[in-house]
Amino acid sequence: AGFDVNPTLWDFYATGEAASYRKTTPDVYGQGEYAVNEVPLAVYTDAVIDSFAAYADAAVVVIGRSGGETGDLPAVPGASGVTYLQLTADERDMIELACEHFGTVVVVLNTQNPLEGGFLEEYAIDAALWAGAFGQIGATAVGEVLAGQVNPSGALVDTYAYDSTSAPAMANFGSYQITNVEVGTPEIPMGGSYIAYSEGIYVGYRYYETRYEDVVTGRDGVGAFDYAAEVQFPFGHGLSYTDFEWGEADLSESDEAYEVAITVTNTGAVAGKDIVQVYLQSPYTDYDREHGIEKAAVELAGYAKTGLLEPGAKETVTVSVPKELLKTYDADGEGTYVLDAGDYYLAAGQDAHAAVNNILAAKGFSESDGMDDAAAPALAHKVTVADFDAETYAVSPVTGNEIANQFTDVDLKTWDADFVYLSRSDWTGTWPGVYADGAWAAPEEFVKALELTVPEDPDAEVPEYGVTSEEFGELNAAMMRDLEYDNPAWEALLDQASLDDLEQLVRIGGYATRRVDSIQLPATTDTDGPQGFSAGLVGGSPGFGYSPAIVLASSWNDSLAEDMGKAIGEESLQLGTTGWYAPAMNIHRTPYSGRNFEYYSEDGLLSGKMSAAIIRGAQDKGVIVFAKHFAVNDQETNRMAGSMLASEQAVREIYLKPFELSVREGGALGMMAAMNRIGPLWVGAHPGLMTGTLRGEWGFTGVVITDQASFSVFSYEDMRMGLAAGTDLWLNTDAELWKLSDADMTATVQANIRRAAHNTAYAVVHSNAMNGLSPGARIEAVTPPWRWWLITANVVLGALALAGLAWTTTKLIRQRRGRAEAAA
After folding, report:
1. Rg, the chain, Cα only
2. d(Cα 252, Cα 206) in Å, to the nearest integer?
3. Which helix (H) or strand (E) holds 566?
4. DSSP-assigned states of every residue in 261-318
5. Are 684 and 630 in contact (CB under 8 A)?
6. Could you tell me which of 637, 547, 632 has the C-alpha nearest to residue 594?
7. Confidence of residue 791 (pLDDT cuts 50, 70, 90)
8. Helix 604-619 to helix 558-575 angle, to the nearest 10 degrees?
9. Distance between CA atoms of 11 and 19, rounded to whole angstroms?
10. First and final CA of the chain: distance in angstroms?
11. pLDDT surpassing 50 at residue 786
12. Cis before 535? omega within 30
């Protein structure tokens, strides 16, 4: 970007006394530790400190943190005396050193989890840039932003609290054990841990902003809560090198949506972009309190980003808010989605906190009531619903199926009648503690439900095999491209295959799907990597390394996300890779999840909008996405087989929201089942999730793959249970693993294999694996010349190796004989 940097300091960090100080992280197996390892003040030599004088105009101080798979970030003080998201003493010394010697101090946060940022106010720091992580070339943007060549226009996707452990979810984050479960038996091969999502829907800003509103409005039981002391940067916060002015919010209504239009004017001196965020507030009624329904003060309802506005330029942006967003899930009363009677508010705001204040102002509250901002009531509109409605949203708008409770077994209240989730009706009285003190003696019914069971359908029939349809004649996969999922020709096509064909297609699906010659279904190559195609696990050529999901989400730019998806699709064509184990879209339930960098946000709607955009772009080029990790997989500790327990409202409105939007708006053709359990069942074996919700409510017609299943340790991901629930493909590379005996291959299992093969084939037929295949083409197994050359080379090298071994052995024998004769 044109800056001159201090070569003495550069060499000090790169090759000098400081070179050995580097962050450490656990490996993929959880070995190792998260440690900052900042250079101690005593290591800075006099020569290094003396070199500051020539560069004293400005210092750039980088604060870094890492994340990773398998291990969560340390949320309790360790040897450093602080948690991983707090500054260490060595970092504080470094900042003090910079402030002492430099005229301007800029902090760059190379962090993805929300670091405690109070230090930005404690020291003479002039500016801070959150950069997240960079991907392959994103670091160049840091210099461009610092130089003013690029005007940043992003916004935070998480709440930045002064105390990163203050979120209610932190009460139940870690490793907790079920005390009366014998793990490692054939019945319960793995598991025995649990997490209680005691906070209910109050994740991230839904907690902080709701409790703030309740303080202002004087709700009983709100307790001692000072928003200004709790939250440093609200969800949606972002600064720019220019200023923007918003006109009043104009609200219009159609049959299906509300449209919020706002004119944005750049009133500053440089070009820039702005984000219009629209939030929804729903009434919190007596019916809600009676039936355990919770309502946040605001929830993100939509957003739009302007184009690049030159100084003085303006643009009117419109945010569409589907009326369906007004619904809420009522598990206890109607057992479906309901629409409460009462006053709803749609409010625009620069962030979630501004939106709350705009709503409060529209209601007549002011700073005299405890508001921390005078706000803009003209940016909020009230919409009144006259009558309680338990019918409109009780039916899926996609499939027409009735919507009913699917996650009763996930709800902790099912297993503990005295349990209470966090409620805004009494913040202090329902504030969560560690459930069962971290050692839960579960009811025997729950323990029994943890056991592997084999569902059998008495009405199941053995499918046809190796039969050509009289009606359709001989079919092949290429003929199915334009046919709907439920077209009878699919059954005729699958009738041509053998049981062995279909069983192997379903059972051996790790990083590839198998070719099925009997139906001319091509094989695919599938690759991991939410930041792009990776070569780390199975080799092959890697694709481009994109910025991680949290950085993309911070752009609040759906078009940019779709462009990334299209770029992934182009790489798919170049690399010969069809399946992409991505995007990843679990929720930032706490700041300390090790994999938050790989996921978008603490908010389900933003996560879902971003995911849907990427999916649209990638599938436009024929990629099969496998959206992951489906679902309620929001920490790394005990992610394998741990039981996640949450209310049905929270499951649906928070944790499933990104996946729902990925299907309904993105058209996802693939899902990846997570490793965890929800309630007592592995998610891939949960029929309410895999069939009742995913297919019955959202209309999904694609393929569900397991997460890693190539090793016997994953035996809790039982194939028979998973098939019965609606899982289709096992991420397995072992040709013998999961193979069923003839006795196990019942009519039920065979029918489920047939359905799973249909789902897998449907996704493949709609992918770029079909490129170049016409209905008249045939797939033939051929050995290309390069493979013959490789085989020949291997034979020759093998022969040479054997000859060398024989020569060496003969020589050694002769030497030993010679020594023996000499000794004699």
Report:
1. 29
2. 26
3. helix 558-575
4. EEEEEE-SSS-B--EEEEEEE----HHHHHHT----S-EEEEEEE---BPTT-EEEEE
5. no
6. 637
7. low
8. 40
9. 9
10. 81
11. no
12. no
Contact 345, 280 (CB under 8 A): yes
Closest CA to 279 of 174, 351, 212: 351
Per-residue b or e along 651-665, where b marks 16 or more CB atoms closer than 10 Å to that residue's CB: bbbbbbbbbbbbbbb
Tokens 């009366």, located at residue: 180
- Among positive and negative, which fits the CA dihedral 543, 549, 554, 557? positive
Q: How many residues does the chain have?
A: 824
**What span, in angstroms and rounded, lies between the C-alpha atoms of 202 and 321?**
22
Cis peptide before 629 (omega within 30 of 0): yes
Beta bridge mates, 383: 344
Host H or E run for residue 232: strand 231-233
Say whether pLDDT at 238 is over 50.
yes
Give the 3-state DSSP-derived string for 807-821, with helices as H, strands as E and coil as C: HHHHHHHHHHHHHHH
Quick one: average pLDDT of 741-758? 97
E strand spans, 700-781:
703-708, 729-731
Q: pLDDT tens digit string along 273-288?
A: 999 999 999 999 999 9
Contact 671, 630 (CB under 8 A): yes
What pLDDT band is residue 790 in, cutting at 50, 70 and 90? very low
Please tell me the distance from the alpha carbon of residue 221 to that of residue 268, in angstroms, as a whole number.
44
User: The tokens of 723 are what?
Assistant: 């098939």
Closest CA to 411 of 509, 335, 503, 308: 335
pLDDT at residue 796 above 70?
no
Provide the angle, in degrees to the nearest 10, between the axes of the packed helices 747-765 and 488-495: 110
Q: Which amino acid is located at 427 in the chain?
A: W
pLDDT, tens digit, 9 for 90 and up, residues 69-118: 989 999 999 888 999 999 999 999 999 999 999 999 999 999 999 999 99
CA distance 582 to 626: 5
Q: Do β-strands 231-233 and 160-161 pair in parallel, antiparallel, or remain unpaired?
A: antiparallel
Asked whether the CA dihedral 557, 561, 562, 567 is positive or negative, the reply is: positive
Residue by residue, what is the 3-state secondary structure of 436-464?
HHHEECCCHHHHHHCCCCCCCCCCCCCCC
Q: Is the pLDDT of residue 824 over 70?
A: no
Residue of 319, 371, 370 lying closest to 346 (CA atoms): 319
In the predicted model, what is the mean pLDDT of residues 371-375? 91
CA geometry: angle 703, 709, 711, nearest 5 deg: 160
Determine the Cα–Cα distance for residues 61 and 64; give it in Å rounded to an integer: 10
What is the spatial order of strands in the sheet that 176-178 belongs to? 439-440, 176-178, 193-196, 643-645, 677-678, 681-682
Residue 455 has pLDDT above 80, yes or no: yes
619 Cβ neighbours under 8 A, 6+ residues apart = 565, 569, 625, 666, 667, 668, 669
pLDDT of residue 541: 84
